[in-house]
Design goal:
With 184 residues, the chain is mainly α. The chain contains nine helices and two strands.
Length: 184
């Protein structure tokens, strides 16, 4: 039985804990992707300009470009995985799939909306902690960003369908896929 042959309506919505653990696993898997993009960005910068890599951190414009490249890479990873089969590697591990609200593959606009809604909640955390690392005045903001980071999961407790905030905004849902039958 293939995933496409499964009736979407018959698939249950993924539970809160399963989605939460998959999110943490996704974060662990995303770290090498971000590091690889960072290495390629700095290597390209050094080859094109001949300037030392430390020049990137000295220029606000280059830091902003670096951040934009990283966000674009993460956007590409998620949207391409979601569009191709509805699953990232972490979602495959936890037997989860992203579907459109009506079932089936989520359309591109919904994927973009889901990424943007999630980024609003998740993106501020890393830069604020980086700022707090260098200047303790940013520490309260960094801690508040951790609370904001959990907003989609807290939302799911109160949502009538148990959807994460980004799923409610985008009109998507994360379903749990049953394990495959093993053949002898």
């Amino acid at each position: 039985m293939s995933l496409s042959s499964l009736q979407t309506d018959a698939l249950p919505l993924a539970g809160w804990w399963r989605r939460c653990f998959a999110w943490w696993y996704e974060l662990l898997l995303l770290i090498p992707v971000v590091l690889l993009v960072q290495v390629l960005y700095q290597l390209g910068f050094q080859l094109l300009t001949g300037a030392p890599v430390t020049a990137v951190s000295a220029s606000a414009g280059l830091r902003a470009l670096n951040f934009a490249v990283l966000v674009t890479a993460v956007f590409g990873y998620f949207t391409l995985c979601w569009r191709r089969g509805g699953q990232t590697l972490a979602m495959k591990t936890w037997r989860l799939r992203l579907d459109g609200a009506a079932g089936g593959r989520a359309p591109w606009p919904a994927l973009v909306m889901r990424f943007v809604a999630a980024a609003i909640c998740y993106l501020p955390c890393a830069p604020l902690w980086a700022l707090a690392w260098h200047d303790r005045a940013w520490l309260p903001w960094a801690w508040m960003s951790c609370a904001w980071l959990m907003a989609p999961f807290v939302w799911a407790w109160f949502d009538r369908d148990g959807l994460l905030l980004q799923d409610r905004v985008a009109g998507t849902r994360i379903v749990r896929i049953p394990p495959r039958a093993r053949t002898a």
